[in-house]
Amino acid sequence: MFDATIATDLPKPAFYAELEQQARALLAGESNQVANAANFSALLYHAMPLLNWAGFYFLIDGELVVGPFQGKPACVRIAIGRGVCGTAAATKQTQLVPDVHAFADHIACDAASQSEIVIPLITRAGELLGVLDLDSPVPARFDEEDRKGLEALARVFVESIDGSLR
């Protein structure tokens, strides 16, 4: 059994360093995209405070399709360029949204969500695999330190599956 307990009172850089170590240990030796996404989303959801959704959308046939996640049921398909996830996919840039209601094209899958961060998943070859999406019921839950930490974690996930089944 894997224990994802991390002290939440650590400074964010230390918290993310510990979370990255746990993610590397959790994904070590496995390259299956679905298996790693399932465990990775569970790790984030249970280790990070104040989340109501943590999971993946994978690029399949030109659109984002929901993958493994933790939280309430989600939107199944998102067009590239639509909403926060589609924007992150289209731009290949992290979208840090302190107030989802102020994001012009926000897609509300869970009415409780107030803030969101979406990290594109890019292979070493520059190919978009999909996005990592985290939602919070707390406004402005995510900041630049979260962005840096979550981008590093997204790289750990991509490294674990790069070149494997998609």
TrEMBL record:
MF-aspect GO terms: L-methionine-(R)-S-oxide reductase activity
Superkingdom of the source species: Bacteria
Annotated EC: 1.8.4.14
A Pfam short name: GAF
Sequence ranges assigned to domain GAF in this UniProt record: 53-156
GO cellular component: cytosol
Gene3D superfamilies noted in UniProt: 3.30.450.40
Alphabetic keyword roster: Oxidoreductase
InterPro entries listed in its UniProt record: FRMsr_CS, GAF, GAF-like_dom_sf, Phosphatase_reg/MetRdx
PANTHER family according to UniProt: FREE METHIONINE-R-SULFOXIDE REDUCTASE (PTHR21021:SF15), GAF/PUTATIVE CYTOSKELETAL PROTEIN (PTHR21021)
UniProt family annotation: Belongs to the free Met sulfoxide reductase family.
Name of the protein: Free methionine-R-sulfoxide reductase
Species in which this protein is naturally found: Paraburkholderia solisilvae
Gene: msrC
